[in-house]
Automatic annotation (TrEMBL):
<keyword id="KW-0833">Ubl conjugation pathway</keyword>
<protein>
    <recommendedName>
        <fullName>Ubiquitin-like modifier HUB1</fullName>
    </recommendedName>
</protein>
<dbReference type="InterPro" id="IPR039732">
    <property type="entry name" value="Hub1/Ubl5"/>
</dbReference>
<dbReference type="InterPro" id="IPR029071">
    <property type="entry name" value="Ubiquitin-like_domsf"/>
</dbReference>
Length: 73
């Protein structure tokens, strides 16, 4: 299990526990349950790179304690 921090830049920092083998789509579903927003309206970024739903966290080299930017579409 790893813990990833999502910052929505509106004052919320959400900690999400997941597996490195989860896809970004799975991660968004877990995150949406915690914040109460539909998962298809969430956009995860790191810098200028937008993460795609079908790629796993370990393929993006997302590890324990890493912080991602959360945006709403």
């Amino acid at each position: 299990m790893i813990e990833v921090i999502c910052n929505d830049r509106l004052g919320k920092k959400i900690k999400v526990k997941c597996l490195p083998t989860d896809t970004i789509g799975d991660f968004k579903k877990i995150l949406s349950l915690q914040i109460g927003t539909e998962y298809d309206k969430l956009v995860l970024k790191k810098g200028y790179m937008i993460f795609k739903n079908h790629i796993t966290l370990e393929d993006y080299e997302i590890h324990d304690g890493m912080s991602l930017e959360l945006y709403y579409s």
